[in-house]
């Protein structure tokens, strides 16, 4: 029996992971499930899967969680530290699917216990890629990608020599506003930005797909995970979301990964790696689909892509600044305090202001430094938004 934990179990990735595990309960011992506000779902899944512990991020929900688990053998816990402690419980495979920079410390704790970390939480690589990789190495842990593009690249590299890789192309659907007139983006509403043409995902990543901040983060994630220079990483708009990524080799070959837009593929690949097992995903009928289309991404429409290139060039803690500023701007957009197109303006301004204080960004990459710069960048983002509003 494999010991597994799911961090962010109540979210979109977490629920897809549970779907796969619940199909073969005899194969898994669930150590820990974590969530935040949705304690009813968390408790129901923990009972159903017979988890050792269920943890909510919110201290004030501990009693609710206890009540929902009453009569079961599942232990209840609450708070940020309790999530880190749950992540540190010995497990063979841990899914990192908390949204945002909040996923970093639990992911590091999971790596430090030495198993496999299946990484959906791209923010950990954006904020602290080098720290994630060195922690994995130090503890003999394995990091496997779950973001669909990175899983596709990873699969395209099996049996290949990295020295023969010329370029990596990650695809982007273009999100909700691919075909909108650019002038109209300032008027995009929260509801419009929260619906994705192809993928069913959490609200934050759906909005990040419309703004391309998601792809911007994935550029940085690609650089960190695969260790390739930024100039060798490209974004290609592909509205059908069937090719997830391509790897280009020095002999001119392009290996494309084609599959349905269903995260259970990438999750299942990471769950069963290095084997391929049967997965409950649709089999594509390409004759029925007929054609696939591609476009170059427009950096005027999606300034986030240009910002990601700057962050990759700067390196160090610039990714942590970028991510935190983006999270703060996204919070403000969700609260309907700023407009859709202002998110990129805010992030750019925070990057400019904070790179002036470059000793911050050149600082050593420790969890404390990342947390500190994350805090400063959120503060700076709020200051920028306040001055724009005033
Ligand atoms: P989601 O919003 O659906 O779920 C997020 C999970 O994190 C929930 O379980 C929630 O309870 C938990 N959480 C939220 N705030 C927390 C906090 N402060 N502390 C602890 N837990 C907290 O998000 P999602 O769409 O499942 O995405 C999860 C991660 O996977 C993100 O990093 C996202 O970018 C990445 N990802 C998602 C998809 C997708 O298809 N949904 C695809 C690729 C990558
Ligand atoms: Mg992705």
UniProtKB/TrEMBL annotation:
Q: Which residues form the 1-deoxy-D-xylulose 5-phosphate reductoisomerase C-terminal domain?
A: 143-226
Q: Which cofactor does it need?
A: Mg(2+); Mn(2+)
Listed GO MF terms: 1-deoxy-D-xylulose-5-phosphate reductoisomerase activity; isomerase activity; manganese ion binding; NADPH binding
- Family to which this protein belongs: Belongs to the DXR family.
Could you tell me what reaction this enzyme catalyses? Answer: 2-C-methyl-D-erythritol 4-phosphate + NADP(+) = 1-deoxy-D-xylulose 5-phosphate + NADPH + H(+)
Put simply, this protein is called 1-deoxy-D-xylulose 5-phosphate reductoisomerase
Q: Which residues bind Mn(2+)?
A: 147, 149, 218
Positions annotated to bind 1-deoxy-D-xylulose 5-phosphate: 122, 148-149, 173, 196, 209, 214-215, 218
> Keywords on this record?
Isomerase, Isoprene biosynthesis, Magnesium, Manganese, Metal-binding, NADP, Oxidoreductase
Task: Tell me the classification of the organism that encodes this protein.
Answer: Bacteria, Pseudomonadati, Pseudomonadota, Alphaproteobacteria, Rhodobacterales
Q: Where does NADPH bind?
A: 10-13, 36, 38, 121, 123, 202
What is the source species? Answer: Roseobacter cerasinus
Tell me the pathway.
Isoprenoid biosynthesis; isopentenyl diphosphate biosynthesis via DXP pathway; isopentenyl diphosphate from 1-deoxy-D-xylulose 5-phosphate: step 1/6
- Residues in domain 1-deoxy-D-xylulose 5-phosphate reductoisomerase N-terminal? 4-129
In UniProt terms, what function does this protein have?
Catalyzes the NADPH-dependent rearrangement and reduction of 1-deoxy-D-xylulose-5-phosphate (DXP) to 2-C-methyl-D-erythritol 4-phosphate (MEP).
Q: Which GO terms describe its biological process?
A: isopentenyl diphosphate biosynthetic process, methylerythritol 4-phosphate pathway involved in terpenoid biosynthetic process
Entries under NCBIfam families matching the protein: Dxr (TIGR00243)
Annotated EC? 1.1.1.267
| Annotated ranges, domain DXP reductoisomerase C-terminal | 259-379
């Amino acid at each position: 029996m494999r010991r597994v934990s799911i961090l962010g179990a109540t979210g979109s990735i977490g629920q897809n992971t549970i779907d796969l595990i619940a199909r073969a309960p005899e194969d898994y011992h669930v150590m820990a499930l974590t969530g935040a506000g949705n304690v009813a779902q968390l408790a129901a899944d923990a009972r159903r899967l017979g988890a050792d512990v269920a943890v909510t991020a919110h201290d004030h929900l501990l009693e609710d969680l206890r009540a929902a688990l009453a009569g079961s053998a599942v232990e209840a816990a609450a708070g940020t530290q309790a999530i880190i402690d749950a992540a540190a419980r010995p497990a063979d495979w841990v899914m990192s699917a908390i949204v945002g920079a909040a996923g970093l410390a639990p992911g590091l704790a999971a790596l430090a216990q030495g198993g496999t970390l299946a990484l959906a939480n791209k923010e950990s690589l954006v904020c602290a890629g080098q720290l994630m990789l060195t922690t994995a190495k130090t503890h003999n842990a394995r990091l496997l990608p779950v973001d669909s593009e990175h899983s596709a690249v990873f699969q395209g590299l099996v049996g290949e020599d990295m020295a023969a890789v010329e370029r990596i192309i990650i695809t982007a659907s273009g999100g909700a506003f691919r075909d909108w007139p650019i002038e109209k983006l300032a008027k995009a509403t929260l509801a419009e930005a929260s619906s994705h043409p192809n993928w069913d995902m959490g609200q934050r990543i759906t909005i990040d797909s419309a703004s391309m901040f998601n792809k911007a983060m994935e550029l940085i994630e690609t650089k960190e995970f695969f260790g390739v220079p930024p100039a060798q990483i490209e974004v290609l708009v592909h509205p059908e979301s069937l090719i997830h990524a391509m790897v280009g080799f020095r002999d001119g070959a392009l290996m494309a990964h084609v599959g349905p837009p269903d995260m259970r593929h990438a999750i299942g690949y990471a769950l069963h790696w290095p084997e391929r097992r049967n997965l409950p995903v649709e089999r594509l009928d390409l004759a029925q689909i007929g054609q696939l289309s591609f476009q170059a991404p427009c950096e005027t429409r999606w300034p986030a892509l240009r910002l990601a290139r700057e962050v990759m060039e700067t390196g160090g803690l610039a990714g942590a600044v970028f991510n935190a500023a983006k999270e703060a701007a996204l919070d403000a957009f969700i609260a309907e305090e700023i407009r859709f197109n202002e998110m990129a303006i805010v992030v750019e301004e925070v990057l400019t202001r904070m790179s002036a204080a470059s000793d911050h960004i050149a600082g050593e990459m420790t969890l404390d430094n990342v947390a500190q710069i994350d805090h400063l960048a959120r503060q700076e983002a709020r200051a920028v938004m306040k001055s724009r509003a005033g």
